[in-house]
Every structure is written in structure tokens, then in C-alpha cells.
Recover the amino acids of this structure.
């Protein structure tokens, strides 16, 4: 009933023409998965948990749009959408986007009790929460992210889940150090090792520097990056910095889209965004689902995080980590990402 009520609320906000279009899509969806004519085998569908700090920047909105678009194409299956940010609007914003993309019942969680609390300067989050359907009142009332992680992971096949982080590593730190519970007799590290196929993170500045997602909870980043027990791929600051998106979305995106709305509000507020917003988080989502190639090359090595939140990369063919290296022009990647961001459900 929750799902039906949410969808009814969404439909009330749409034009008659949009209702006819959405109604047709809904009838088709009842008969077969939406794949946009893309043939995808069941074995190639990537099962994803997304962990985002949605709020300080609006590329998280774009990243969620990309993930939902890929799921609608049959390339990904979204298992949960978690917040690493305890700002009051983060969980409602996640719920807004899940609802818009017809997945209102996806599990959502946030750090319990303590963690980074950070709102955005552009004030798009409160607008989305005020104007688009959702039923999560605030982040404080969301389930503990670690509990959601453990429940979802325990119910998945071994070596099957891709975790994407586009925010702080608070939740992953607490997951790794979590004890056995009703969902699994394994501790957090053992559960991750058994269930997770890969962790893809928008984190780090390469070859060295200070990057926001690591710096804001540097203790968590130190522990997680050193102790993570499965393959890791980093999309660094320098990768997303060159991928500019948003202008085409603003000009030609759906007027009903909360994704477009966030960019309409935010892009004019910064002179550095006049050619589009840097797309750090979208690159991580893209490669997590489709793989680094043909968009990027990779280099193996070791990422080390210092107590002050700075990081250093040491290339090593036997290292435990991988990072993305530019391969095709960033404008080409931007075109692919922005097309996915403009997807309408």
C-alpha cells in the first residue's frame, strides 16, 4: 500500500500527457523489465548498494539518477540506498529520488547517533523535499545503516554485491567492525568478505592530496581503506573534475524531474559551474555497473590515508587497490553520463 500511495502522489503532480505516457510504461513494466531495447543476461546484472553523502554537493543527485537509469535498462539491481550524512534532509532526498524512479520501497538507512552532519550551500535539498513525494520525515528516524547493510548482504548470494560509496566512509567503518547479529552469525569483515564482489569508491586525490570524502571522516577512511577484504576501485577527484554535466539536463530535461530541479537551482549559484558541474560521483556509479573499460584504464597500487585526511598513492602491480586513469576524452564520458541523468522513468 505504501508503494501505491506514493505512486499516486507522484501521478497527481504530472500533466495529463505525462500520465498517459507513464501509464503506458507502467503497463509494459507489468509484462517485462524495462531495458530500453538492451539485451542483458541475468548473470551480468550488477547488484548494488549505494552509500551517498547526498547534500553537500548535488552531483550525488546525478549519481542516483545514473544508477536508477542503469537499473531501468536492466544493467543493475539496486538493493539499498544509504546515507553517510546525518543531515536531516539526506534520507528524505534519497526517498524523493527513489520514489521518482518508481522504487519507493528501497531500503534506506543512515548512521545511528553520531557522524558527519553537513548540508549543502545551494539549498536544493529542502526544495526537493518540499515539492516531490516521499514518506521519510527526516534522517533521524531512518534505520541504522549498519543494520540495513547486514540484513541486505546476508540475503544475497556469495561474492555478488557491489558497494558504491560516493560520500564518507562512516557506514563502511561501522560495518567492518560490527558484531554478529540476528541477520548473520558473521562479524562485519567476514560478512563483507563472503558477500561483496567489489567496492567502488569516489574517494582520494591522486597521486596525493586531500579529498573531501576521505577528509571529513579520516579515521573511518584510514581503517576501511587499509582493512577492506575485497577488490577496491577508486574514482579519484581528478577523474570527476574533468567530466562536466548539467547544462543539457537543465535545457532539455523533463520539467517533472527532481534531478533537473536540483541542477536548475544549483548551477547558477557558482561561476565555476557555468560549463557544467563536475561529476565525481557519477563516474563511480558508471564504472561500478559497466566496468572501467572502455571509459578508463586502471592502475594497481596502494592508497594510504594519513591522520589529517590526506592521502598518498603508491603504484604497485601487486597492490590491493586500483584507481581509474583517464582514457577517452572527458567530454565523451560526460555525454554518456548526462544522457543517463536525463532518463525519465
Amino acid at each position: 500500500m505504501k508503494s501505491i500511495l506514493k505512486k499516486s502522489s507522484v501521478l497527481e503532480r504530472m500533466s495529463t500527457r505525462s500520465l498517459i505516457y507513464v501509464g503506458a510504461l507502467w503497463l509494459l513494466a507489468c509484462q517485462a523489465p524495462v531495458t530500453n531495447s538492451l539485451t542483458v543476461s541475468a548473470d551480468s546484472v550488477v547488484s548494488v548498494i549505494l552509500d551517498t553523502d547526498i547534500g553537500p554537493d548535488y552531483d550525488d543527485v546525478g549519481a542516483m539518477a545514473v544508477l536508477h537509469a542503469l537499473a531501468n535498462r536492466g544493467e543493475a539491481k539496486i538493493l539499498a540506498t544509504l546515507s553517510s550524512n546525518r543531515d536531516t534532509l539526506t534520507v528524505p532526498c534519497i526517498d524523493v529520488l527513489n520514489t521518482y524512479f518508481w522504487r519507493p520501497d528501497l531500503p534506506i538507512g543512515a548512521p545511528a547517533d553520531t557522524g558527519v552532519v553537513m548540508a549543502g550551500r545551494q539549498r536544493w535539498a529542502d526544495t526537493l523535499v518540499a515539492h516531490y513525494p516521499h514518506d521519510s520525515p527526516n534522517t533521524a528516524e531512518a534505520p541504522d545503516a549498519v543494520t540495513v547493510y547486514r540484513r541486505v548482504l546476508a540475503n544475497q548470494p556469495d561474492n555478488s554485491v557491489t558497494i558504491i560509496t560516493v560520500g564518507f566512509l562512516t557506514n563502511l567503518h561501522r560495518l567492518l567492525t560490527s558484531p554478529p547479529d540476528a541477520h548473520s552469525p558473521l562479524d562485519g569483515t567476514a560478512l563483507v568478505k563472503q558477500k561483496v564482489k567489489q567496492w567502488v569508491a569516489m574517494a582520494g586525490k591522486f597521486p596525493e592530496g586531500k579529498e573531501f570524502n576521505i577528509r571529513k571522516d579520516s579515521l573511518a577512511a584510514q581503517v576501511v581503506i587499509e582493512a577492506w577484504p575485497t577488490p577496491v576501485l577508486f574514482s579519484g577527484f581528478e577523474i570527476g573534475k574533468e567530466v562536466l554535466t548539467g547544462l543539457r539536463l537543465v535545457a532539455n530535461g523533463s520539467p517533472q524531474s527532481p534531478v533537473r530541479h536540483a541542477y536548475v537551482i544549483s548551477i547558477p549559484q557558482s561561476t565555476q559551474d557555468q560549463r557544467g558541474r563536475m561529476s565525481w560521483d557519477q563516474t563511480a556509479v558508471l564504472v561500478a555497473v559497466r566496468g572501467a573499460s572502455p571509459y578508463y584504464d586502471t592502475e594497481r597500487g596502494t592508497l594510504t590515508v594519513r591522520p589529517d585526511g590526506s592521502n598518498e598513492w603508491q603504484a604497485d602491480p601487486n597492490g590491493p587497490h586500483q584507481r581509474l586513469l583517464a582514457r577517452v576524452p572527458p567530454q565523451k564520458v560526460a555525454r554518456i553520463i548526462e544522457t543517463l541523468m536525463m532518463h525519465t522513468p
